[in-house]
Amino acid sequence: MIKKLRLGTRGSALALAQSRQIAARIQNENPGLEVEEIIIRTRGDEILDAALHEVGGKGLFVTEIEEQLLDGRIDLAVHSIKDLPGDLPAGLMLGAVPEREEPWDVLVSHGGESIRGLPPGSRVGTSSLRRQAQLKSYRSDLELVDLRGNVDTRLRKVSEGVVAGAILAAAGLNRLGLGERVTERLAPELMLPAVGQGALGLEVREDDLDTIAALAGLDHGPTRQAVAAERSVMAYLEGGCHVPLAAFAEFRGDVLRLRGVVASLDGQRVIQAEQECAPEEGIAAGETLARQLLELGGEEILREIRNV
To answer: Taking Cα atoms as reference points, which of 211, 182, 47 lies closest to residue 104?
Structure first.
């Protein structure tokens, strides 16, 4: 039995909170196993003055960590799955996908207003094209501004009135113990979540059987199946931070319900589709849903966005 695991993580407060929660669970499942935390700075941590879609999108927060995983400097990495590209590098895999946190987007507003209650012209912060497009579709009269930085930075800008509100992931606030800051949880009919939002992925080398065995107790089958279906949509559409794309899967009894959205940047066109399938058929259903989105008008939207 291995005696020590080297866990790679980004150094933000949220990344550290997530990684330390996972480290505690690993040690609980494997008494006597030491977990060493290794902080790795990524390109996404260096660039805070530009929107993600302008500087590379997916991969910004994981590439440097995956490099250290591949060359053996760390044994596992804890990622927010929504930060992971559709395809992992050769030789790497998700050794475990723990049970998902709350997947929804939320509004934190300065004066306690809901999205519907914000006055016309209110400034709302988010750097996500997915959030911007869906919000424009619902409230075209709001002024949307790019808002980068860690969670504390974004919350401070709301508190100081720099923006009237900000859209964030519920999961991040919950993991930081800041769930009380939520003003409104946004229904998926208004804002469908990002692929993998609320879920963590524990990335390992495919041939590291000892580490994979140590993580086995953390894997949550239903979350893995739901996330795999969502990531199948993203992979088929070659989606990322450059594209207003959303996909969310959830269980309804023993059926997996998968919903997807592709939207134009101005929010004027929002293409929606839905599939239901057996849990083990989620990847195939994701590809079917992706084709359906393309046929309904998503192909034209994606072509326009990629030609900008």
So the answer is: 182
**Residues facing 185 on adjacent strands:** 106
pLDDT tens digits for range 25-56 = 999 999 999 999 999 987 766 555 555 544 45
Q: What is the C-alpha separation between 41 and 28, in angstroms, rounded? A: 28
Residues 6+ apart with CB under 8 A from 188: 104, 248, 259
Average pLDDT over all residues of the chain: 93
Sequence-ordered list of residues with C-beta below 8 angstroms from that of 301, at least 6 positions apart, any chain: 262, 263, 264, 269, 271
| Domains of the chain by start residue, with CATH | 4-99+199-219 (3.40.190.10), 105-185 (3.40.190.10), 230-306 (3.30.160.40)
Length of the chain: 308
**Sign of torsion over alpha carbons 167, 171, 176, 180:** positive
Instruction: Write out the two tokens for 201.
Output: 């992925």
Q: Give CA–CA dist 249/252, Å, rounded.
A: 10
75 is an active site residue: no
Q: Which of 177, 167, 231, 155 is nearest to 199 (CA)?
A: 231
Of 49, 75, 83, 152, the catalytic one is 83
Its pTM stands at 0.91
Distance separating alpha carbons of residues 154 and 167, to the nearest angstrom: 9
Tokens encoding 154: 């974004």
Give tens-digit pLDDT for 115-137. 999 999 999 999 899 999 999 99
pLDDT (tens digit per residue) in 148-165: 788 999 999 999 999 999
Q: Which tokens is 128 given?
A: 């996500």
